[in-house]
Amino acid sequence: MAACRRERGDELSGRLLIHERSASFGEQSVQWRRIRFGAAHSRSRLLHPGQLSGGYYRELLSHRCGLTPEYFSSVFRKVTGCTFADYLARVRIAKAKEQLLVSKSTLNQIAHTVGYADGLYLSRKFKQMVGLSPTAYIKKPKKIVCLQYLGHILALGLTPAGTTAKQLSPFALSPITSGIRDVGIPVSLPKIAGLEPDLILTIREQHEHLSQIATTIAIPWGRLDTLRELEYIGELLDRRNEAEAWIAGFCEKEERARREVAGIVGKRESVAVYEIWGDRIWAVNIGYGRGTRNLYKTLGYSPPQTLAEHVLGKGPGKEIPFDRLPQYAADHMFVSVWKEHGGEKQAKRLMESEQWRGLDAVRNNRIYDIDLDTFVWNDPLSIEKQLTVQTRLLRRQC
Prior knowledge:
By secondary structure, this protein is of the alpha/beta class. It has 21 helices and 13 strands. The longest helix is centred in the middle third of the chain and has 21 residues. Pfam families: HTH_18 (PF12833), Peripla_BP_2 (PF01497).
């Protein structure tokens, strides 16, 4: 049995295993047990300006598999139904699509990145394969599947073709989500493929399976402020004006909220968000929703000094043992409960304890209960709704 293997470290991000049952090369003599050419990884790591020749790639891969270039091409076409040159062209155009959307590079620069000589050749090849010029492709409305950032897409006035049930949950009763298909949890690749999207948005860097369906762009979660994320996605989808208009409207609401709650929280008083779980309390970081963005950025409040580095820096926040809560308690405490795994029962026990009743925030009636269904999210539409609730809760002190 002849075998060709490439394990870890393969720059094609996959394994190509060929097994021959006999010396002859017939339809039944070769079994492909697994073929994953990892187009996304190939595009990002193999295509360099100095490596333009399709023949170069064929020789590179055939060498790794221990095959002659001719035999490699024969097997490749028999199994995939296309020539290696066609496959490579598709990989390059797919990478070009991604670069057209996410980068500010010129056409010449993109051409060099994906392995073409210049922008003119890329433009001709792009139109030949996509049916549109690169400029027309950028401006064409995209059929989108978003595995994250649904609230951002909706804020831009767009309706994606598909998303997950989890993303849909905060908008379950809203007519703006009518017609959006659920692609499952875990995500179903056949369901996504059935929607025939032009673009898939995700937070995961490793998305080669998605890239085989449509152009896939990963936007790491939590690295940017919500409004900066909206700007970025608006630019990505050629909806800059819509993003700017939404942000301008939200800024007006922020200013109004600041006026309405002015003086309620003293300059030296602290504010923080706490979530009660079955085995601990979590002081929530600004990048993890629960209304933290509005409290610290919109309203300009500060956490207790004992929590500052945890809730304003990197990371998810601070895990607090129940008996150490007084060390980290704020003057104003926004509190949510993670009801699963004993969280609801633990919250009841904690709030009936002498330790809880002794907190300054409790004695001064500065505990603000927040509902996770509303506050867990960090997208534009959610923070807008949260700001209204937070303003109402704080004004309760007046």
